[in-house]
Design brief:
By secondary structure, the protein is an alpha/beta fold. It has two domains: 164 residues, Rossmann fold; 156 residues, no CATH class. Helix content is 30%, strand content 11%. The radius of gyration is 21 Å and the shape is globular.
C-alpha cells in the first residue's frame, strides 16, 4: 500500500508533533518503505539525525520514545511528489498534522486522492475546511461529529519493557509533572530506568488530556496515579483503561500523603484540608520492600498494565485503527 505521509513542519518552539511521529512509525512498521514521509522526519532516523545540527530542546521531550525508531533515511524515494499526487500514484495521502502542514492540499483534493487528516493539537478545535474531503482524526475530541474520529497516542513496540522490575527502588517516581527541578533526565535510558525502578508515578492532564508521559509510565512497568482521570471526556484517551486507572488511584492515592504535598501537587490539586491531612504521614516509612510485602497485588497490577500496553497501545495498533477506519 503506497502512502504519502505529509508530516508536521513544526512550530516556532518545536520541529515535530508526537501524534504525527507515532502514527508514521506504526505505518512504517506495517508497510515499510512504501510509506513516504515528506519532507522527511530526519529526527526519527538513527542514521540521519547524526548528520544534522540541531537544538535537542527543539524536539518535544528531547526525542525520547520516538528517537532511533526509523533507519535508512535516504532509501525513501521522496522525488516528484507533486507529479505523483497528480497521477494518483499513492493509494492514500495522510496529513499527519494538518494544522501545521497542508502541503500539496490543493492538488490532493483536485486530483481526487484518497486523503485523511490527523489533528494532534492539545485544543478542541476542528478545522472544518477538511472534513468534507476525508476522515478527520482529532486527539482532544469532545463530542461526536460527522467524519471526525478520536485518536490517541501510542508507543513503539520495541521500546516497551519486556518484563516488570519486581524489585523497584522507588515507591513514587522522582519525576513530578510540572516540577521542572525534577526534569533531570538527559537520555532516554535513564528516563526509562527512573520509571521501571518505581512502583508508582504521578501523571495528570497537561494542556490536553492525552500526553505521551502516560504511555511512557505504562510501557516501563510502572503504575500511573492519574489525577482526576474520572473527569476525562469519553472520546479522549479512548485507548487507555480509564476505569481501571481510576480504580487504582482510589486504592493507592494515600501513598501520596507520605510526601511533602507542595512537591507533588500543583496548586489546582491542593486544598487546605488535604495539606493538613498529609502532615502526620510525611515522615512515615517509604520502603518499597515493606510496601510490596503489605500489598502483594501490586506486582500483579504492574504486570496487568504492562501486558495491556503491549496488546493495545502500540503504534502498529494505532496505524491499523486509522487505516481500518479509512476503509469505511
Amino acid at each position: 500500500m503506497k502512502i504519502l505521509f505529509i508530516h508536521s513542519e513544526g512550530n516556532h518552539a518545536h520541529i515535530n508533533d508526537f501524534m504525527s511521529d507515532l502514527l508514521l512509525h506504526g505505518l512504517r512498521k506495517l508497510h515499510g518503505p512504501e510509506v513516504i514521509d515528506y519532507p522527511g522526519c530526519w529526527y526519527m532516523y538513527s542514521d540521519e539525525i547524526l548528520k544534522r545540527k540541531y537544538d535537542i530542546n527543539k524536539i518535544w521531550g528531547k526525542g525520547f520514545t520516538i528517537n532511533n525508531t526509523l533507519n535508512n533515511f535516504n532509501s525513501i524515494d521522496r522525488t516528484d511528489i507533486k507529479k505523483k499526487i497528480q497521477s494518483n500514484f499513492f493509494d492514500l495521502v495522510i496529513y499527519g498534522s494538518i494544522r501545521r502542514s497542508n502541503l500539496f492540499i490543493d492538488d490532493v483534493i483536485k486530483y481526487n486522492n484518497k486523503v485523511l487528516f490527523v489533528d494532534g493539537e492539545d485544543d478542541n478545535i476542528i478545522d472544518e475546511r477538511y472534513i468534507k474531503s476525508g476522515l478527520y482524526f482529532k486527539r482532544e475530541l469532545l463530542e461526536n461529529k460527522h467524519n471526525v474520529l478520536p485518536i490517541s497516542f501510542a508507543v513503539p513496540r520495541e521500546k516497551i519493557l519486556e518484563n516488570i522490575n519486581e524489585k523497584p527502588t522507588n515507591l513514587l517516581a522522582p519525576l513530578v509533572p510540572g516540577r521542572l527541578s525534577t526534569y533531570i533526565y538527559d537520555d532516554e535510558k535513564t528516563y526509562y530506568d527512573m520509571y521501571s525502578n518505581s512502583i508508582f508515578a504521578i501523571t495528570n492532564k497537561k494542556l490536553g488530556w492525552d500526553c505521551l508521559r502516560h504511555y511512557e509510565i505504562l510501557m516501563n512497568g510502572c503504575i500511573p496515579l492519574f489525577f482526576n482521570i474520572e473527569d476525562c471526556p469519553k472520546l479522549i484517551l479512548k485507548t487507555l483503561p480509564k476505569e481501571r486507572l481510576s480504580e487504582i488511584y482510589s486504592s493507592f492515592h494515600n501513598i501520596l500523603s507520605l510526601y511533602f504535598p507542595f512537591k507533588i501537587y500543583k496548586k489546582k490539586f491542593l486544598s487546605i484540608k488535604k495539606i493538613f491531612s498529609y502532615i502526620p504521614n510525611m515522615f512515615k516509612n517509604k520502603s518499597t520492600f515493606t510496601f510490596l510485602k503489605e500489598n502483594s497485588n501490586v506486582l500483579e497490577i504492574k504486570n496487568e498494565l504492562l501486558n495491556f500496553t503491549k496488546q493495545n497501545l502500540t503504534t502498529e495498533i494505532l496505524a491499523k485503527y486509522v487505516l481500518n477506519k479509512q476503509k469505511l
